[in-house]
Amino acid sequence: MSLRRLGVSAKLPVSRITREKMPLVLGRKRTGWWRLGLGVLVAVTVVAVVTAAGCSGAAEAPAPDQGDPGEHRSQIESWREQRDASLRKPDGWLTLAGLYWLEEGDNSFGSDPANALVFPEGKIDAVAGVLIRNGREVTLLPAAGVALTTAGAPIAGATLLSLDTSKDGPTIVHSGSLTFYPIERGDMIGVRLKDRESSVLAEFEGMEYFPIDESWRLIGRYVLFDEPRILRTPNVLGTVTEEEINGEIRFDVGGEVRSLRSSGDPAEGFFVVFGDRTNGSETYGGGRFVYTEPVQADGTVVIDFNKAYCPPCVFTPYATCPLPPPENKLGLRVEAGEKMFGARH
Questions:
Q1: Which of 251, 295, 241, 249 is nearest to 272 (CA)?
Q2: Do strands 159-161 and 137-142 pair parallel, antiparallel, or not at all (unpaired)?
Q3: I need a labelling partner for 34 at 20 to 30 A (CA). Which of 95, 116, 149, 177 fits?
């Protein structure tokens, strides 16, 4: 398989890229002020929150939360059901079938190996058309007689496609069981291919988890830095996301204060990419993801590692997942949340 198809390059730029993550709460939309570049508003909001709580850079993390065990178990079981339903969607991560990076100019696609973008055999015409890249613009020109559709309407003639980073999302093109759309990752423009008849989806038996353990539902505290810092998050493509952050989450585990960093909107909760000493054995080697709850008026924030889950890269080589930044590699075993995909087989 070619390096181009997998998105591997010997030299890739350091740039701001779009994260790939799995939504866990149905209907939850992450708008995140970091997307809009309103770091000043985030800082003002968090300053008010933390100052009101009397926090400082030396603040101690609160003790683990002790709630109703029965209620907590019910919440985690419901979360797992939603996670399973999300993974089984006909356009979910288990349907990824290809990732291709576009060159400037014409990029032919179809099932014929002579194409620049080779789609699965038997799933699409041998020569289905051309994707024309002009900087950040991608135009689709279907081949004569090839039936491609978008939003239920046939594509006739040259059609400009929206990227996945556009306000309204990407233009999704359909051909039989296949769908594909353009994605933007820094200076790179690619095409993501999905197949609702994916064997990975058809054979999926569910995820395996550590036992539910309420002691891993922790109440931390969001603590401001004296001045903003840069969080550098690597990803599997070899590029790095640079984002300005104003503080970090501190929490107590076994009498020792630990910390995690993330950008985002404190009022919505943080998306955290973290690593721990289960990575590479019980859990995915590239770390896991977890969402915190929103920061409260007293500066506290709940982080429940029972909701830690695997990045899409655990299922497929066609995702572009972030990896834990050095600051988020915990020197302990987090025996909570999802285990490695396929661990039960």
A1: 249
A2: antiparallel
A3: 95
The tokens of 56 are what? 């400082």
- Give 288 or 48, the one with higher predicted confidence: 288
Of the residues 157, 172, 202, the one at which a domain ends:
202
> Within a domain: residue 1?
no
Total number of domains constituting the chain: 2
Structural domain for 232, as ranges: 14-88+207-328
Structure confidence at residue 342 as a pLDDT band (50, 70, 90): confident
Q: What's the CA gap between 185 and 145, in Å, rounded?
A: 32
Of 175, 202, 229, which one is at a domain's C-terminal end?
A: 202
Beta strands in the chain (DSSP E): 96-101, 105-110, 117-118, 129-134, 137-142, 149-150, 153-154, 159-161, 173-175, 178-185, 188-195, 217-234, 240-253, 256-260, 271-274, 288-291, 300-304
Quick check: is 6 in a domain?
A: no
The secondary element (H helix, E strand) that includes residue 47 is helix 39-53
Residues 110, 25, single domain; the answer is: no
CATH of the domain at 108: 2.60.200.20
Burial 97-116 (b: 16+ CB within 10 A, else e): bbbbbbeeeebbbbbeeebb
Candidates 205, 227, 329; CA nearest to 278 is 329
Is 56 inside any structural domain?
A: yes
Instruction: Quickly tell me which residue has 């999704």 as its tokens.
Output: 172
Does the residue 305 lie in any domain? yes
- Interval 82-106: pLDDT, tens: 999 999 999 999 999 999 999 999 9
Mean pLDDT of the chain, nearest integer: 85
Q: How far is CA 196 from CA 89, 90, 140, 155, in A?
A: 9, 5, 22, 21
CB 86 within 8 A of CB 201: no
